[in-house]
Design the sequence.
């Protein structure tokens, strides 16, 4: 199956998987949010992300002759290409917010350049997703400031989450060797080049939150190659349970 | 220390040209959060194009016990309605 995937298919699946896996993680907050309003905010973002995942899967599916459901529910862990960051468990509210914060800044930087992609379909997906992504970034950034500059306990929990999750962030900004031709053709952009500016903007928010931007080495993450942390298998088991137990089930 | 976030009232403008209408209330720590919460709780189904939030403590309401005194007297003043004019047939939506 893998051998028939072109570099663009890999990129579409990678983006779809980032959105689906993070959306699924946020959906786990449904009914468990700290207050009703945040419960709804997190599940709204979950729905936005799952909607974005569908756009990538539909495009990839049309190219591969598969449905979006087949791509989401019948691929195994080794054929999922999401980054390690998004599969990390929710932890406390601080971890969920920090994971979202790092991801949102990456996604906004990426979508901004993808809007100019030479691939019109991809450019249209980016333009549509970017409106939602901007709201997500505002939401997570305000929470970083509110909790960082909040109580002693919220400050401390936020710093712990920032420190723990930063090593996962660099993977998002790594160019994939298999995407080189796509970058040369103007379909994708050099994501590594987005890091410097994004880091600076994230630092500004973290400083405003009276928190410190962590100094941490990047993990040798290989989610883009289908190699994952132990958490993704459990997540997919739950996400894919229904289709695996009742193949072809519709509702 | 107060353990609950303050209550806010939410007003939504359904579309440009119409006025803001009270939609409900919610809890939030500050105005920015109240706007975001209002967006997430009350505009999920395309309800509007603009939001106002006001902290509920700033609203002053009429006393329900005064309703008779305040509103009954208007009921028999039908001459305050512009219904005694003959309108040309061409005028619509009056």
Sequence:
């Amino acid at each position: 199956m893998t051998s028939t995937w072109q570099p663009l298919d890999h990129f579409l699946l990678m983006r779809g998987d980032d959105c689906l896996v993070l959306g699924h993680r946020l959906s786990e907050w449904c009914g468990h949010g700290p207050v009703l309003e945040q419960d709804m905010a997190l599940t709204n973002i979950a729905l936005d992300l799952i909607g974005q995942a569908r756009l990538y899967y539909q495009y990839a599916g049309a190219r591969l002759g598969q449905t979006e459901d087949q791509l989401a529910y019948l691929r195994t862990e080794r054929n999922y290409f999401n980054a390690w960051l998004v599969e990390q468990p929710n932890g406390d509210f601080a971890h969920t917010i920090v994971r979202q914060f790092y991801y949102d800044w990456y996604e906004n930087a990426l979508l901004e350049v993808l809007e100019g992609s030479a691939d019109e379909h991809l450019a249209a997906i980016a333009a549509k997703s970017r409106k939602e992504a901007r709201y997500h970034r505002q939401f997570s950034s305000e929470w970083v400031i509110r909790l960082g500059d909040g109580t002693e306990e919220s400050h401390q929990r936020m710093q712990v989450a920032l420190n723990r999750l930063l090593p996962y962030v660099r993977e998002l900004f790594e160019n994939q060797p298999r995407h080189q031709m796509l970058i040369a053709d103007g379909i994708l952009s050099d994501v590594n080049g987005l890091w410097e500016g994004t880091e600076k903007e994230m630092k500004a928010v973290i400083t405003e939150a009276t928190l410190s931007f962590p100094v941490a080495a990047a993990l040798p993450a290989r989610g883009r190659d289908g190699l994952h942390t132990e958490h993704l298998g459990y997540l997919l088991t739950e996400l894919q349970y229904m289709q695996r137990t009742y193949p072809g089930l519709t509702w | 220390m107060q353990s609950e976030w303050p209550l806010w009232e939410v007003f939504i403008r359904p579309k440009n040209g119409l006025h803001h209408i009270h939609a409900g209330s919610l809890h939030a720590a500050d105005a920015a959060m109240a706007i975001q919460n209002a967006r997430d709780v009350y505009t999920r189904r395309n309800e509007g194009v603009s939001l106002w939030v006001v902290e509920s403590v700033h609203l002053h309401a009429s006393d329900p016990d005064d309703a008779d005194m305040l509103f009954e007297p208007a009921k028999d003043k039908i001459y305050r309605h512009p219904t005694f004019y003959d309108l040309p047939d061409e005028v619509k939506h009056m």
Summary: The first helix of chain B runs from residue 31 to 42. The interface with chain A takes residues 5, 26-30, 32-33, 36-37, 39-41, 44 of chain B (CB under 8 Å). The domain at 7-80 of chain B is CATH 3.10.20.520 (Ubiquitin-like (UB roll)). The mean pLDDT of chain B is 91.
